[in-house]
Amino acid sequence: MTYLTHATEETEHLGAALAKQLRAGDVVALFGGLGAGKTAFVRGLAAGLGCWGDVCSPTYALVHEYPGPVPLAHFDMYRIGSEDLESTGYYDYLETGHILAVEWSEHILEALPNPCWRVRFALLDEERREITIERGGP
Ligand SMILES: Nc1ncnc2c1ncn2[C@@H]1O[C@H](COP(=O)(O)OP(=O)(O)OP(=O)(O)O)[C@@H](O)[C@H]1O
Ligand SMILES: [Mg+2]
Predict the structure, then answer these.
(1) Please, where are the H alpha helices in 1-138?
(2) Ligand 1 pocket check for 116: Cβ under 6 Å
């Protein structure tokens, strides 16, 4: 499904709506460039899941964990090299029943499970984003 959002809040709402469809262990792979709205979407996901804590970009930490009824692990793979993916705990989180939201999934394509949720962001202009959500293979 493809959506058009016109404001940050609309992208957050879309994330919250997807949260209702997620099950423990699901991976949400996010694709799209700088400022595309990935972190905004994850903020909505966390709200929709009932997680607590303020969602911000894990650009330096690489992963932030948000506790909740179904806990969320939020990754940013912008700086990842394939050899240090293991050290982020990514593979461990796949086993723990967390929901994983992964920014810059372009950088870990081989490590994404199939199927997983794939969310692609296109930056149309300052306020508009085209967002495609699908569940499937590569
Ligand atoms: N429709 C929209 N959806 C999402 N964000 C929007 C929208 N319109 C404007 N914005 C703004 O665009 C920016 C999106 O930032 P965000 O951190 O979510 O992007 P990102 O994809 O996570 O970037 P990065 O790759 O740097 O992590 C924010 O400043 C947000 O307010
Ligand atoms: Mg981000």
Answers:
(1) 8-19, 38-49, 90-93
(2) no
How many angstroms is it from 69 CA to the middle of ligand 2? 23
Which contiguous run of DSSP H or E holds residue 134?
strand 129-136
Number of domains in the chain: 1
Query: Ligand 1 in contact with 38 (CB < 6 A)?
Result: yes
pTM of whole model > 0.85?
Answer: yes
Give residue-wise pLDDT tens across range 74-92.
Answer: 999 998 976 789 999 999 9
Q: Which residues of the chain have pLDDT under 70?
A: 82
Q: Which of 116, 75, 110 is nearest to 92 (CA)?
A: 75
Ligand 1 atom with the smallest distance to the CA of 41 is 18
Name the β-bridge partners of 131: 3, 121
Host domain of residue 54: 2-136
Kindly report the CATH number assigned to the domain that includes residue 59: 3.40.50.300
**Residue with the nearest Cα to atom 8 of ligand 1?**
127
- Give percent of the chain with pLDDT exceeding 70: 99
- Of 3, 6, 8, 54, the residue with max ligand 1 atoms within 8 A of its CB, to mutate for a pocket test, comes to 8
pLDDT at residue 82, rounded to an integer: 65
